[in-house]
């Protein structure tokens, strides 16, 4: 069965999309407010003059670039939480704050599907919030990312969340290399989380290119799903691709299993008027 949906992440105590419009968005991250460019916010903002502790100026979404202009009260980093998971926020040169709040809806969904002792693999895990949500729900987690720095940040977030001793394997590796090795070893997982970038590099310079490599990624995922697997979540952003394409790919990989596939847009609900700001597309399968 296939369902077309919009996965909406609502504001929570430590995060909210306060207002949006005029090509920008105003968000709150704990006690600080920031303005960032947002090409899709083509409408007018709810209020004209935004007060913020900092703004990310310039650079296009495509080529990166640009920089933060921050008021002196903004520290290098500060603690945030979402439910039981705590993590550091900071103004990164990549225009984001060190985690992706629009993943909130995915974290809730997968946490609700995890049974204690399930094996969950989080690929492209970055600063680990998704891995910690899964660990918190009782999973044995394998967290993989190409960047040593990201994995170190993820481990620090585990400590902050009181999950330093949780059963999480922290792995620095290239995504496809790791997955191919896991398939050869006959490893199996109950849950898979894939949040690949458009373009990236493995620790030895291996090139990840979404359109070229996604089919192999999903085929490897198919081989890693345990007979009693519960879910597979795939999210894609910053790319010209429809959620329907993700649907076709996942439908093929899970054809023999039945279950459900849900695909669509991911969005954050603006607090001012409830407008939906799209952030990514997704496809997810569940048994
Ligand atoms: C933007 S993040 C994904 C967001 C993350 N899942 C989250 O929710 O916070 C993309 C991650 O992919 C990693 N990456 C890029 N190329 C990779 C590769 N070839 N193999 C493994 N990880 C890679 C980057 O280091 C980065 O941490």
Automatic annotation (TrEMBL):
<dbReference type="GO" id="GO:0032259">
    <property type="term" value="P:methylation"/>
</dbReference>
<dbReference type="Pfam" id="PF10672">
    <property type="entry name" value="Methyltrans_SAM"/>
</dbReference>
<dbReference type="InterPro" id="IPR019614">
    <property type="entry name" value="SAM-dep_methyl-trfase"/>
</dbReference>
<protein>
    <submittedName>
        <fullName>SAM-dependent methyltransferase</fullName>
    </submittedName>
</protein>
<keyword id="KW-0489">Methyltransferase</keyword>
<dbReference type="GO" id="GO:0008168">
    <property type="term" value="F:methyltransferase activity"/>
</dbReference>
<dbReference type="InterPro" id="IPR013780">
    <property type="entry name" value="Glyco_hydro_b"/>
</dbReference>
<keyword id="KW-0949">S-adenosyl-L-methionine</keyword>
<keyword id="KW-0808">Transferase</keyword>
<feature type="domain" description="S-adenosylmethionine-dependent methyltransferase">
    <location>
        <begin position="76"/>
        <end position="219"/>
    </location>
</feature>
<dbReference type="InterPro" id="IPR029063">
    <property type="entry name" value="SAM-dependent_MTases_sf"/>
</dbReference>
């Amino acid at each position: 069965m296939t369902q077309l949906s919009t996965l909406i992440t609502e504001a929570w105590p430590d995060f909210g999309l306060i207002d949006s419009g005029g090509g920008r968005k105003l968000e709150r991250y704990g006690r600080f407010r920031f303005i960032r460019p947002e090409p899709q916010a083509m409408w007018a903002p709810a209020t004209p003059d935004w007060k913020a502790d900092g703004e990310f100026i310039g650079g296009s979404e495509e080529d990166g670039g640009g920089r933060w202009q921050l008021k002196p009260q903004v520290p290098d980093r500060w603690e945030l939480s979402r439910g039981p998971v705590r993590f550091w926020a900071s103004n990164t040169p990549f225009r984001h704050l060190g985690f992706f709040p629009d993943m909130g809806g995915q974290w809730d969904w997968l946490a609700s599907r995890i049974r204690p002792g399930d094996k969950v693999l989080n690929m492209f895990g970055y600063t680990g919030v998704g891995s910690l949500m899964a660990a918190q729900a009782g999973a044995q987690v394998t967290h993989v990312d190409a960047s040593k720095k990201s994995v170190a940040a993820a481990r620090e977030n585990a400590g902050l969340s009181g999950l330093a001793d949780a059963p999480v394997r922290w792995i620095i590796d290239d995504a496809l290399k790791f997955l191919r090795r896991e398939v050869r070893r006959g490893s199996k997982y109950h849950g898979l989380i894939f949040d690949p970038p458009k373009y990236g590099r493995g620790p030895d310079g291996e090139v990840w290119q979404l359109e070229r490599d996604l089919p192999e990624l999903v085929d490897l995922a198919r081989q890693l799903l345990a007979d009693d697997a519960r879910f597979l979540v795939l999210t894609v952003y910053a790319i010209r691709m429809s959620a329907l394409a993700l649907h076709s790919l996942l439908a093929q990989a899970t054809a023999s299993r039945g279950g459900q596939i849900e695909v669509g847009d991911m969005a954050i609900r603006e607090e001012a008027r409830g407008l939906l700001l799209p952030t990514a597309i997704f496809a997810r399968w569940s048994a």
